[in-house]
Amino acid sequence: MRPYIIFRYVGIVLLFNAAFLLVSAAISFHCHQPDFLPLLYSAVITILFGIFPLIYVPPSSYIYNIEGLVIVVSSWLLSCLVGVLPYILYGGEFTLANAWFESVSGFTTTGSSILNNIEALPFGLLFWRASTHWIGGIGIIVFVLAVLPAIGQASMLLSRSEISPLAMKNFQYRTQKTLKILLIVYLSLTFLETILLVACGMGLFDAVTHSFATIATGGFSTRNTSIAYFDNPAIELVIIVFMILSGIHFGLLYSAASGKIRYLWKSSIVRFYIGAMVVGTALVAICIHGNIYEKWSYAIRYAAFQIVSLGTSTGFSTTDTARWPAFAVLIMIYFTLQCACSGSTSGGIKVERILIFWKSIQTRIKKLKHPKAVVTLKMDNAFFPEDVVTTSLLFIILYLGVVFLSTLLLTGMGVDILSAFSGSAACMGNVGPGFGTLSSLANYGQLPVAGKVVLTVVMLLGRLEIFGLILFLSVRSWK
């Protein structure tokens, strides 16, 4: 392993973060607000750390597997550290633990917050906070590789480390083409949602920051009460549509935009993804109608938004779910665990793995009925090798194991069981809000410091899909 090569690529990522810090500082300067110097100092520090490897380390078009993994994981960790700087320098509610939590939550697109008064933050910090979502949404490495084709053959290995193998299945292009498709879809969705939100009455700054959070399926809002602040059905509808789109494989969205919309409707994964949210919305609406909302229109409106928000791991809110019955809460916890599709910006177990799980049960039953038969798992006319099925099932087991362990640790710190479990599931799925004391209009600020640290580790495990962080921590044992 060549450390100098790792420093060079991580330096490029740091410079990319510095660019957004400078934009945030420019916004602060324009608005004459007190966060200008914290943002400017943070940008300068980040530029210095990022530019030295570029000056002293020559470029290399080839990197080894171990180097690719270390570059990707180090980029995430150092980006989170850089994200802490403006928060710490600004002060206010940002203690070291709170700043780390907010930064990790942003870059992993979790959207869990420790802030009691978001609206007290200056515009520059609010923009930086939203930018961490947008940078982390599609993956820091993907951004860098898409805009710096000069990196050459190294992009192939780095993209494989960054993008889930399940997500790569629907791409039939070379690596550079795939990365450009991801970036085109990401930018297009962000631009379109911003225009539509402005047209629906949202201010430009709010429209940009909420588009960043929606397309990244993050959930950071500029308002204390999230989307409930606007109380605008048109805004909610736009956000619902773009949350759903952001939860679909970007390769399928690109094909649909290119005139091949049939690929979108033919996908059993997309049908299951949409169908599950329709059923979930119907069940929750029936549950809360009469108990919470007298009118069906309100029950459907709020149920649809919350189910889509959780089912895409976005985490926006239009109402306080702490008042909702246990039946509705359990359904929403399911969507907190499942989330959306691979190849999207969503977190969670992913729809593909849920379908693989159910289909593996079906194939096992067929095998038990006909021991001599050759039974393979097939989905959308594609056969899944045994190792893919095994890895997916193992991922689900590890995923739930991490949620259980995190819940155990939090309850040991005095957190009630519902808050501990739902908060752990929300952070593992990069969803944001949980239930109990961590419900949709609450925050994570009241958790003990140790609990916040535990949940930041859980967020990173969820964003790197467990295996990436585990391999990184055991890198010395590689041969």
Straight-line distance between termini: 10 Å
Specify Rg, calculated over alpha carbons.
Answer: 22 Å
SSE sequence, one letter per element: HHHHHHHHHHHHHHHHHEEHHHH
Number of separate helices: 21
Average of pLDDT: 88
What fraction strand?
Answer: under 5%
Number of strands: 2
Major sheet characteristics: 2 strands, antiparallel
Going across the biggest sheet, name each strand in turn: 1-2
Helices and strands: which structural class?
mainly alpha
- Low-pLDDT runs of 5+ residues are 146-162
Characterization of the model:
By secondary structure, the protein is mainly α. Among the domains are: 1-162, no CATH class; 351-477, no CATH class. The protein is 66% helix and 1% strand. It contains 21 helices and two strands. The chain has a two-stranded antiparallel ribbon with strand order 1-2. A hairpin with a 2-residue loop joins strand 1 (377-379) and strand 2. Helix 1 packs parallel to helix 3 (65-90) and helix 4 (96-107) crosses helix 5.
